[in-house]
Structures are given as structure tokens and as C-alpha cells.
Design goal:
Layout lengths: L4 E3 L2 E4 L4 E6 L10 E6 L6 E6 L6 E3 L7 E6 L4 E6 L8 E8 L11 E4 L3 E6 L1
Length: 124
């Protein structure tokens, strides 16, 4: 059973940085797209970033462009989301996800595997 485990969440002041990691113990998603989504209380799940299976292509949601960077190390079966210049509106539960193809859109429907999430809280 494929499993995605997020880590790195926490509380930070506005303007600060956090780095989220997504591990896939015992399973490799080397040829699969991966992505990050977030959900704030009372809001719909929002797509943050996606990365292709080989890590050659990326895509970002408009709200995080220029501030967040997604990357992956297939040799270590890990994927990371570097978040800089955080804002209070970035607060939410962040989820790592993986799809079944090399490339996925910024659409939850393209992803088949999901982690349990890690909380990010940004205070003003």
C-alpha cells in the first residue's frame, strides 16, 4: 500500500519560511507526478504546486508563484515544498499527493494517493 507522509509544518510569523517534506516509505513514485494542496477551515482544497515524474516540469498556483518552490529527489523518494515570504493567508493543512501518470494538472482529480497532511500556521 503506497503511503505518503508529510513533515515540516509548524507555526511561523509572516515573512518567514518553512520547508515541507513528503516521504513515501517503501514505495517509489519516481515516474509519477506529485503535488501539494492546502485546505483552510471552511474553504475548498486549493492546488499549490505540481511536479512531473522526473522533476523536469513544475506548475504553481497563482497565490504562491514566486514564493514557493517544489522539488523532488527520486533517489531518496522524497519531495519538498520550500515556502518563503509566508503570509497569514497561507495558513492551512498542507497535503502531499501523487498521481498515476508522469504529469498532473493542478487539479485534485488527477491525484490518486494522498497523505494525512501537516498544519502550517502563519501569524501576522
Amino acid at each position: 500500500q503506497a503511503r505518503l507522509v508529510e513533515s515540516g509544518g509548524g507555526s511561523v510569523q509572516a515573512g518567514g519560511s518553512l520547508k515541507l517534506s513528503c516521504a513515501t516509505p517503501g514505495y517509489t513514485f519516481a515516474g509519477n507526478c506529485m503535488g501539494w494542496f492546502r485546505q483552510a477551515p471552511g474553504k475548498e482544497r486549493e492546488a499549490i504546486a505540481s511536479i512531473s515524474g522526473a522533476g523536469l516540469s513544475t506548475s504553481y498556483g497563482d497565490s504562491v508563484k514566486g514564493r514557493f518552490t517544489i522539488s523532488r529527489d527520486n533517489a531518496k523518494s522524497t519531495q519538498t515544498l520550500q515556502m518563503n515570504n509566508l503570509k497569514p493567508e497561507d495558513t492551512g493543512m498542507y497535503y502531499c499527493a501523487a498521481g498515476r501518470t508522469d504529469w498532473c494538472r493542478l487539479d485534485p482529480a488527477d491525484y490518486s494517493y494522498w497523505g494525512q497532511g501537516t498544519q502550517v500556521t502563519v501569524s501576522s
